[in-house]
Structures are given as structure tokens and as C-alpha cells.
Task: inverse folding
């Protein structure tokens, strides 16, 4: 019988492995980063200090009940702590701010089947940055940005284009814009990889 472990214990094991110089793989279990990271893909984590993160990097953080692999959007500091702002490429909003001590590492590569795509160099880096630009364009189109996420009063304030979502016809506009951007990203991924 396999006993499940909580995310805090699992994150500690991953962090210890990274500290020893290992590059542990994790399996993607949601579609929030498609098409770059699909359900069932393996991602390879590397040890990278939070101070060296660049906007657009894909990172792993510990959430209360799981590990989250999303794109790094911003870092800000308040009286309490330093916070990271993340967003999944396919999500319509930013994640709730995460304390910097929940940061685990940066994604260095993706394995899909027998193929490995480095996200640090070459085509993989270009493709990852391109998907990040598409996600950023969506945020800009719907008037949300990482600054808003840094100062959001509540988790519901983090939705991109919250006012857009309040009207049926504008939801149709959002989906009409997102679908071509998503399909363009999928096509590029197929052509390059």
C-alpha cells in the first residue's frame, strides 16, 4: 500500500534533492500550461535562486495541498514578506500571491514520451518564451497585469478582465480572441518540436 504524503513533505524532499545537485522530474497533472506542458508530461526541475528568476520562467511552488507549476510574472515586497505572482498559460487569471519561501525551483526541461525539450536553450527556450508572450498578450488585451495581482484585495480580483466576465457577449469576445492565440501556439509547437 502506498501512503500519500502531504505537499509540504513532498516539497521538502524535492528541495533536498535539488540541494544535492539532482534534477528531479515531476509529472504534470493539469492542463493549465498547455500546449507547452500537457497532462502526463514530465518536467525536470533545476535549482535556481529566486533572485535569478526572469519574468516568463516556469517555476514550481508549494501550494497548500499540491505543487504548482506555472509561469513567473512578477515579484513584489510588502511589510510582511516577498511575494511571487504566477499564472498558468491557459488560465484566465493570476494565482493568489505566493510567499517566496514556497518557491522550490525552475523548470529546465520537458519530457514527452521519449523526447526531451530543453526550456533553457534553442527551440525550447524560444517556444516557452513565445507561449509566455501569448499569455502576456491575453492579460494585456483584457486589462489585467501583474501589478493588479500584487495589490489584489481578494482572490476574485485576480481574474483577468473581471468586468469583462460580467456580460455574456463580452465572454464570447474573450473566447474568440483566446482560441486563435491558443491554436497558433499549438501550431508553432508542432512545427518546431
Result:
Amino acid at each position: 500500500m502506498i501512503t500519500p504524503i502531504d505537499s509540504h513533505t513532498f516539497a521538502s524532499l524535492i528541495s533536498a534533492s535539488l540541494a544535492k545537485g539532482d534534477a528531479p522530474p515531476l509529472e504534470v497533472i493539469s492542463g493549465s500550461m498547455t500546449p507547452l506542458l500537457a497532462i502526463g508530461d514530465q518536467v525536470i526541475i533545476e535549482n535556481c535562486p529566486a533572485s535569478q528568476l526572469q519574468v516568463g520562467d516556469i517555476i514550481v511552488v508549494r501550494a497548500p495541498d499540491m505543487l504548482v507549476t506555472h509561469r513567473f510574472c512578477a515579484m513584489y515586497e510588502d511589510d510582511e514578506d516577498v511575494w511571487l505572482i504566477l499564472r498558468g498559460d491557459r488560465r484566465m487569471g493570476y494565482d493568489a500571491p505566493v510567499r517566496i519561501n514556497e518557491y522550490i525551483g525552475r523548470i529546465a526541461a520537458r519530457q514527452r514520451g521519449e523526447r526531451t525539450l530543453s526550456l533553457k536553450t534553442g527551440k525550447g527556450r524560444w517556444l516557452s518564451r513565445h507561449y509566455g508572450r501569448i499569455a502576456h498578450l491575453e492579460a494585456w488585451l483584457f486589462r489585467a497585469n501583474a501589478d493588479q495581482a500584487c495589490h489584489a484585495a481578494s482572490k476574485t480580483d485576480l481574474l483577468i478582465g473581471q468586468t469583462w466576465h460580467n456580460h455574456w457577449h463580452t465572454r464570447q469576445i474573450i473566447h474568440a480572441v483566446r482560441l486563435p492565440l491558443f491554436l497558433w501556439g499549438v501550431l508553432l509547437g508542432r512545427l518546431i518540436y
User: Anything to note?
Assistant: The chain has one domain: 7-192. The CA atoms of residues 149 and 158 lie 6 Å apart. The two ends are 39 Å apart (CA to CA). The longest helix spans residues 168-192.
